[in-house]
Amino acid sequence: MKIYIRNMVCIRCRMVVKSELKKLGLHYTTVELGEVEILEDISPEQMERLAVGLRKTGLELMDDKKSILVEKIKMIIVELVHYSDDDEQIKINLSNYLSEKLNHNYTYLANLFSEVKGTTIENFYLAHKIEKVKELLVYDELSLTEIAYKLHYSSVAHLSNQFKKITGLTPSHFKSLKNKRRSTLENM
User: Fold this and answer.
1) How many CB atoms are located within 10 Å of the residue 9 CB?
2) Residue 33 CB: number of other CB atoms within 10 A?
3) What average pLDDT does the structure give for the chain?
4) HSE-CB for 113 with a 13 A CA cutoff
5) In terms of domains, do 120 and 31 share one?
6) 58 Ramachandran zone, left/alpha/beta (phi>0; psi -120 to 50)
7) Residue 136 maps to which CATH number?
8) Is there a single domain that holds both residue 85 and residue 56?
9) Residue 170 above 80 pLDDT?
10) CB 41 within 8 A of CB 1
């Protein structure tokens, strides 16, 4: 049985879900970002207890098909930007990538995402790329040129322009700030 979980965007989220499943004596085959495959059927009582346990940590069970699809779009983008290796990101066409992964027409996905989230898929993707740039700037292990290359920007100027448009700061100014505020993935 598959269950879908909203706001599950990091490795810690997986650990929380596994812990909640264990408390209920439920066995799983996979716990991925946004979805869990459980071996047995879940009673309504177990489902309610799972929902309560997850809510305490900001996670939420989903049963609406549109919400599930939007959450899948979000998870694919989060995984692509934050957790995939560089080779997987190499100059992909996001619309084709999402269409292939989800077996839906991109126009449908884009319209649904905008309707539910109030922003476009492209803006969501860009926000995550900029968040990844911030992370890499804070770590201070790569130059801006290397970051632009790693995240497949056409140039440092392009990355800098998008960064300033989103954050209001240049990458170098951001890097120089002592209080480097980054958003958690859950809050994006």
Assistant:
1) 24
2) 22
3) 89
4) 23
5) no
6) left
7) 1.10.10.60
8) no
9) yes
10) yes
The CATH number of whichever domain residue 7 belongs to comes to: 3.30.70.100
List of long-range contacts for 181-188, beta carbons under 8 Å, 24+ apart: 182/131, 182/134, 182/135, 182/138, 183/131, 185/9, 185/10, 185/78, 185/82, 185/128, 185/131, 186/7, 186/9, 186/10, 186/58, 188/124, 188/127, 188/128, 188/131
Residue 188: which domain range?
A: 65-188
Instruction: Say which residues have a Cβ less than 8 Å from residue 14's Cβ, sequence separation at least 6.
Output: 8, 31, 32, 33
Q: Are both 92 and 183 inside the same structural domain?
A: yes
- Whether residue 181 has pLDDT greater than 70: no
What's the Cα-to-Cα distance from 127 to each of 81, 92, 167, 185, rounded to whole Å? 10, 17, 9, 10
Kindly report the backbone phi and psi dihedral angles of residue 51, in degrees, each rounded to the nearest multiple of 5, phi listed first. -60, -45
Q: Per residue in 43-54, pLDDT tens?
A: 999 999 999 999
At residue 159, the 3 state secondary structure works out as helix
User: Are 39 and 76 part of one and the same domain?
Assistant: no
**Which residues neighbour 174 within 8 Å (Cβ) at sequence distance 6 or greater?**
134, 137, 163, 167, 180
Sign of CA dihedral 96, 14, 119, 136: negative
Note the pLDDT tens digit of each residue in 28-37: 999 988 889 9
